[in-house]
Amino acid sequence: MCFLYFCDVINNYDILIMEIKGKFDHYNFNVFNLERSIVFYEKYLGLTECKRTVADDDSFIIVFLRDSHNSGFLLELTWLRDRREPYGLGDCEFHLCIRVDGDYDEARKFHREAGCICYENEKIGLYFISDPDGYWIEVLPLKRK
After folding, report:
1. How far apart are alpha carbons 76 and 63 in whole angstroms?
2. What residues form DSSP beta bridges with 27?
3. Are 45 and 64 in contact (CB under 8 A)?
4. Is the Cβ–Cβ distance between 135 and 141 less than 8 Å?
5. What per-residue confidence (pLDDT) applies to 24?
6. How high is the pLDDT of residue 138?
7. Domain spans of the chain, in order of start
8. Which backbone phi and psi does 4 adopt, to 5 degrees?
9. What is the pLDDT of residues 28-81, one digit of tens each?
10. Contact 139, 125 (CB under 8 A)
């Protein structure tokens, strides 16, 4: 990955290039009801809590969930005590993707019966589920066919 920095000093461009070797660590969703969200991710995607941070003044709780493969990538759920209404997610033009091991068609059936599939494209073989706060999660098979 390259980081480019451009600085225009009277039409004289300075370009700094630095190679950064990054690794995905976590993705954050702010959630309205923390316990409901934890149950959703455990029940429908097999994610489990691995770390919890509570603010000294109880103004927020941050919970990290990990997958059953211990891939190292975490989902961070952030709950804010003073939040009074659900989050507005706009057009959901962002999403998290989870690859599921085992029978992909059985996973899709399970999610369909649970009523949490919000978009499905059978032609290209993918679907999305929606969590309690309306975040979309793309579900793909662990191995591509």
Report:
1. 6
2. 75
3. no
4. no
5. 78
6. 93
7. 24-141
8. -110, 140
9. 999 999 999 999 999 999 999 999 999 999 999 999 999 999 999 999 999 999
10. no
Q: 15-49: buried (b, 16+ CB within 10 Å) or exposed (e) per residue?
A: eeeeeeeeeeeeeebbbbebeebbebbeebbbbee
Q: Quick one: tokens of 16?
A: 């700094």
* Strands 26-31, 74-80: pairing kind: parallel
Predicted pLDDT at 1? 39
What is d(CA 8, CA 11) in angstroms, rounded to the nearest whole number? 6
For 61-129, the DSSP string reads: EEEEEE-TT--S-EEEEEEETT--SPPP-TT----EEEEE-S-HHHHHHHHHHHT-EEEEETTTTEEEE
pLDDT, one tens digit per residue, over 82-123 is 999 998 888 777 889 999 888 999 999 999 999 999 999 988
Q: How confident is the model at residue 6 (pLDDT cuts 50, 70, 90)?
A: very low
Cα gap 66→42, rounded to integer Å? 10
- Fold (CATH) for 24-141: 2,3-Dihydroxybiphenyl 1,2-Dioxygenase; domain 1 (3.10.180)
Looking up tokens 């804010």, which residue turns up?
Answer: 80
